[in-house]
Design brief:
49% helix, eleven-stranded mixed β-sheet, binds pseudouridine-5'-monophosphate, globular, alpha/beta, Indigoidine synthase fold, binds manganese (II) ion, 11 strands
Length: 301
């Protein structure tokens, strides 16, 4: 049973623009206290753009839609919070664990609550070497079947970006570029790969969302929004850090759901915190764009 915060519940009922937010980025994606400061700033940015934020996480086995600032603070510093993807949910609920929601589980819970748009930093994808390891994020499968639009800054080059695009194509997920033809690569605006379509306005994004739902084309839409130029990292610096982090993960035998948090943390260390600043700025930028898109979508409904 969902625990929906009253402000969020009222907004959903009245057709107001609600934006879902994930909690793995807080517990496993950034260090304390920047994780909490960022989560609160993201919520404020959504409000400044006329939206209602709903940060999602699991407390004592209860899925919370619209965490309080105190709950966000707790997620930021508490040790031992699980990272829950789709397969973990029944166990986390039954055993009454605290768990952070990934892109996949945030989509699941958002859809159950009636929230149609979700903002994050980067999604999981097909990992490099996946032809051997079969490490493909459950986020991609969720995008294939759950009716939530996800606004992100592309995917990190810790992943195999061409294979990630192939997978999304097979699964029928539209990959859109917000004012760009190129798939953004999280810390930089450039991957050298093309998105399926460029969209040029919030309204255009909203109309695509509406058509997908009207025509019962189940599944998500991925809107990729490039990091603003002034916050982007130097491609050489970030790519060197990514390569080093990947080698370190291999050396330490990091596997399964530990891989992504390990890489994120190692990259922050290797760049002396610069990558964290870029990460924060791109999420704030996504929050602004996401709020504007859902506002347009609410007008169309
Ligand atoms: N990518 C990022 N930052 C993140 C994540 C991914 O740039 O915080 C998190 C998201 O919660 C995403 C999850 O859903 O990692 C993917 O984990 P995995 O690769 O284990 O599926
Ligand atoms: Mn994985």
């Amino acid at each position: 049973m969902l625990k929906i915060n009253p402000e969020v519940a009222k907004a959903i009922k009245e057709g107001k623009p609600v934006v879902a937010l994930e909690s793995t980025i807080i517990s496993h994606g950034m260090p304390y206290p920047k994780n909490v400061q960022t989560a609160l700033l993201v919520e404020q940015t959504i409000r400044n753009h006329g939206g209602i934020p709903a940060t999602i996480g699991i407390i004592d086995g209860d899925p919370i839609v619209g965490m309080t600032p105190e709950e966000i603070e707790e997620f930021g510093k508490r040790q031992g919070i699980l990272k829950a993807s789709r397969r973990d949910l029944p166990v986390v609920y039954a055993k009454k664990y605290w768990a952070a929601t990934t892109v996949a589980t945030t989509m699941i819970i958002a859809a159950q609550a009636g929230i149609e748009l979700f903002v994050t930093g980067g999604i999981g994808g097909v990992h490099r070497g996946a032809t051997e390891t079969m490490d493909i994020s459950a986020d991609l499968q969720e995008l294939a079947k759950t009716n939530v639009t996800v606004v992100c800054a592309g995917a990190k080059a810790i992943l195999d970006l061409p294979l990630t695009l192939e997978y999304l194509e097979t699964q029928g997920v539209p990959v859109l570029g917000f004012k760009t033809k190129e798939l953004p690569a999280f810390y930089t605006a450039h991957s050298g790969l093309s998105v399926d379509y460029q969209i040029d306005s919030y309204e255009e994004a909203a109309r695509i969302m509406k058509e997908k739902r009207l025509n019962k084309l189940e599944g998500g839409i991925l809107i990729t929004n490039p990091i603003p130029e002034q916050y982007a990292m130097d491609a050489k610096v970030i790519n060197a850090a990514i390569d080093k982090a990947l080698k370190e993960a291999e050396k330490q035998g990091i596997k399964g759901k530990e891989v992504t948090p390990f890489l994120l943390k190692t990259i922050v260390e290797l760049t002396g915190g610069d990558s964290l600043e870029s990460n924060i700025q791109l999420v704030l930028n996504n929050a602004a764009v996401g709020a504007e898109i859902i506002k347009e979508y609410c007008k169309l409904k």
